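Minutes, project check-in

Agenda point 3 was the complex the collaborators sent over. CS summarized: two entities, 875 residues total, and the question is how they sit relative to each other. Sequences were read into the notes so everyone works from the same version.
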Amino acid sequence: MIFKKDIGLLVLILVVGTVVAIINPRFLLIGNISNTANQVGLFGILAIAQAFVILTGGIELSVGAIVALLGVVFIDLIVNLNVHWVLAVMIVVGAGMLMGLIHGVLVAKVGMQPFVVTLCALLIYRGTARYYTEDATVGFGFGASFPTLEWLTAGRSELFGPLARLIGYDGPTIAVPHTLIALAIVTILAGVVLHRSVLGRYLFAIGKNEEAARYSGIATSRITMVAYVICCGLAALDAIVLAMYTRSIAPAVHGNFYELYAIAAAVLGGFSLRGGEGSIVGVVLGTILLQVLQNLVNLLGIPSSLNFAVMGSVILVGVLADQQFTRYRKRSLAQASRLRGDSSIAARAAAARAPDPSESVPRHGA
Amino acid sequence: MTDPFLELIGIRKSYPGVVALNAVSLSVCPGEVIGLVGENGAGKSTLMKVLGGVVAPEAGVIRTDGVERQALTVHDAMAAGIAFVHQELNLFENLDVAANVFIGREMLTGGFMKLVDTRALQRRVQPFLRRLGCDFAADVLVETLSLAQRQLVEIVKALSREARLVIMDEPTSSLTLTETERLLSVVAALKADGVSTIFISHRLGEVERCADRVVVLRDGSVAGELSREQVNHAAMIRLMVGRELKGTYTPPANAPSGEALEIRDARTLTFPDQTVNLSVRQGEILGLAGLVGSGRTELARALFGIDRLLGGTVRVAGAPLASGRPRSAIEQGLYLVPEDRKRSGLLLDVSVAQNISLPNLRAYAPGMLVAVGAERRNAERQKNSLGIRVPDVCTAAGVLSGGNQQKVVLAKWLSMRPRVIVLDEPTRGIDVGSKNDIYVLLRDLADAGVAILMISSDMEEVIGVCDRIAVMHEGGISGILDRPAFSEHNVLRLAVGARLPEPASQNGS
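CS then shared the predicted structure for the full assembly.
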């Protein structure tokens, strides 16, 4: 599903990309595009994970710490404990889903605030990861080799090669990183789930108006828990891919701030932190924009210390512009209906503003 | 008594479709206790809003201390010494009593740092607490106080502003008997100090005890005034009713039979000591009347499973419902049209079609995915059969008028297989035309074998539409009326907890 907001974001990405390409043509080098695509794949999965929870009006701050903890666990499993990597993937993803279940129970059943629950989870997982490795960096030793796993997670394929040969082009083509392919698969699945399935409808309904959802017989707390399970499960999957990408993990810093990148991408992509709004395509576009910005800082010779500042400013301006635009559109819509003489909408807007005679007596608090 | 310091003369206020107040006059003398009674929707709240300066009347004069005004502002009302003690109290639970009383006008100390002079606050509050005989100190947190004590804090707040008129809106609705006694003695203490009170209450017994004069509102007009000697239950009820009710009743096509909904010994959280026994037959419309706060909405929520039942059982067509699980109610065919459709009934910025399919979404998703076509076709069907006025079922539900929104809520349930439909104030805030549509629809449903339980505070509706009326009072069923015994008078008597004079027509407990 593609929304108007997504098109606006796409235009913004193209404009930024064009400007960067004009200033520094190296932006369009095949290697650069391929690397940026890889980053998009790595961070996009986390952003989609985050989107599921944000949709319900919650937030998941622990995804970065999950990436660190499950990353060291995964490496430990396959390198030191000699667990077959397929089994290790299942264990790690299962562990992630269990973490999500715990967060979900605390939020939906116990009634704790998502921010508090996941903040504590962040601290616990980060601390556990450091303790687990005694604060040492873990990685693959010499000789440790998992060809299939490495090809799957960190490999690249010249998917466009055959196509290029077909039109008689003989030069190098973009090697599509497999992380991007993974993101594409996750995007399609998540998109179908969120925008077409029963579960997706329920998630949107809970985010928009939890009480009305309950009055429609939706098991709101169970659905909320499912959102956390999906989120942390996807985060676990990303933990594996990231571990294979970096090949060594310093548990104190690995995955730092990743939850914030994910939240930023979701917000850029049109998700409201109040819940009930947003599209999966938007999240992916948000991730792309963030990565293009990172790339821009490098290519334009902006001091890399300003990285966060650039990102923050763009998000702020983007969300502000979107808000103003929405407000403007609403106003012109109301105006149009008034001009058309369509009494219904305008009159109702006026009636909604009139005080309701059934309300109670005025408040005199202050 | 001395001259009135506050006079309302010929006040008129209308809202689209309703005249809330029509030529209402009211005067208040110093130290006078005025009882203000009337049915739900008689105009009491609007009148109080006029006094509070929140609503400006369209016509009439307000005279305070000889100054005539068209309307009061909130500031004028305060300056004139008018203070409110609300049904839902406006206190800051995290602050202590003294801070609440002087909120926004704290005494300061410490020069430019503007620190709050806590000790001065407490010194000032203490005498008021003593005067009202409060059993708590000025420095306790409000969250530790009972509801009755909080009310006293509100009264102290009013007194500290040198209030000359304290308006109490249903002050005793959640108080115990002893707390009520104390409140009445506080009213007497205020009176002794020359402070007047307007005492709004559905509990006629209390009004009878404390009021010097009773003003009865009916349909936005003053139906009559009773002086101290004339005040009694019968006289008040006589003035509250006496409206011409149009005969719109359509009898059921075939005699109701078989118990569709059976409530046995049900207890809800709000009235844990009261049990409700009630049954609704297939094909009948049972009205559930009662005053605001009599526990009807709580009962409806518990039936549908939004809240847990504290005890008792609910059966639909003989099968018991699991308490606290709306899904269980839905599976058995018991549906609820909630009181607040904007908050609980609809997703306002979601399309009409998606709202209608929400409770039964799985039926539209044979695989895992929602079949949007089937969803739309059903919405179109409901739109045509219920006459929902919307150009396109993809329109957001929030854009529709109240009546059409209510039809969307009904359409949610009618696309499924209803056995029992509970409606909580289904026509509140809805225009006359849509109201009628809904009545016709309810009768058609009943004739199709559905049992309907309709909570309503609209007397005309209850008497004009229902086959039987159950009346609630303080969480229990105070009586059930059959059509021959239908009268506004009888319903009201049961609603205020009085017995009916002719027990023959009363077959409830």
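Noted in discussion: DSSP finds 17 helices and 22 strands in chain B.
Follow-up: revisit at the next meeting once the mutant set is ready.
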